[in-house]
Specification:
Order of helices and strands: HEHHHHHEEEHEEH
Strand content: 15-25%
Distance between the termini: 85 Å
Bound molecules: iron/sulfur cluster
Structural class: alpha/beta
Number of domains: 2
Number of strands: 6
Length: 276
């Protein structure tokens, strides 16, 4: 007669509570990898240190992302370039600019990017600003993807970029966030998702990378290792470097004081000259 009580380790494991998963976004993981002190300021210290003023380049990025989301909120017959000024002005974020002349110049530039970019948009993506989530052995991952396309029966992760510098050959291949989005999208939609793309609107450049299951798995394992480091961390030492100049916590962080201080609009000044 079988015993009702577990009598070996396997049986005991069946009755153990499941391991507690660490909830995180790709951005949380990369913040720790960039600078553990910034991670502490952002996610642990409550109240956190005061942040610096808003950045114009973040406002620009948010404005363009919002306009593209609103494009897909429209019925398909209304998605024409003529609606872009309305979409962009309705989505425009003015924080961080030097003055109204700079706002106007960058708005005109962004409108020109969008006018070009919408000619290449798919009619109905699988998702726009879509939250994806998936579990790994130790993580509960989630994040929001700018766009998920479907091509030839596979999903494609698309991330919009509006920064001044163009894309390098490794930007899509090395992106932790894009690989984790692909991992989560494949599980959420139950369709293969291997290709990840960065779309740089200022230049029209697309940086694409086709992952293998193994390369996505490597990004997942590295993320799990980073989270294990986070959980073991106590000091959260600062890691001063080039990012300090753009860090929201630079004013509060003694280690960041030697970095050059930037104006909130420094990163978009190149966009204020007339388009060439
Ligand atoms: S200023 Fe530099 S060292 Fe300090 S938290 Fe920010 S990135 Fe880290």
């Amino acid at each position: 007669m079988p015993s009702a009580k577990p009598d070996n380790e396997d049986q005991l494991a069946l009755f153990s509570p499941p391991p507690r998963l660490f909830s995180c976004t790709p951005s949380r993981i990369t913040t720790f990898e960039d600078c553990p002190r910034k991670y502490r300021y952002t996610y642990l210290d409550r109240p956190g240190p005061p942040k610096g003023p808003p950045w114009a380049h973040n406002s620009l990025g948010a404005s363009v992302h919002n306009a593209l989301k609103r494009w897909y909120d429209l019925p398909e017959r209304e998605r024409r370039p003529e609606v872009l000024p309305r979409l962009l002005s309705g989505a425009w974020v003015t924080d961080g600019y030097r003055d109204s002349a700079q706002v106007r110049a960058v708005y005109e530039r962004a409108l020109a990017w969008l006018t070009e970019y919408v000619t290449s948009l798919p009619e109905e993506p699988v998702g726009v600003e879509r939250t994806v989530a998936a579990k790994t052995a130790s993580l509960a991952l989630s994040g929001r993807v700018d766009r998920i396309d479907e091509r030839d029966g596979e999903l494609v992760i698309v991330d919009y970029k509006t920064g001044r510098t163009g894309l390098g050959p490794d930007d899509a291949r090395g992106s932790r966030a894009l690989a984790l989005y692909a991992y989560a999208a494949e599980r959420l939609f139950r369709k293969p998702c291997r290709t990840v793309e960065l779309h740089h609107l200022p230049s029209g450049q697309v940086a694409a990378h086709r992952h293998t299951p193994e390369s996505i798995e490597r990004h997942v394992r590295r993320s799990e290792e980073t989270v294990a480091d986070i959980q073991a961390e106590t000091a959260f030492e600062p890691r001063p470097g080039a990012l300090c100049s753009w860090c929201d916590f630079r004013a509060a962080c003694p280690a960041g004081q030697s970095a050059a201080q930037r104006e909130p609009w420094s990163a978009i000044e190149g966009y204020c000259a007339p388009a060439g």
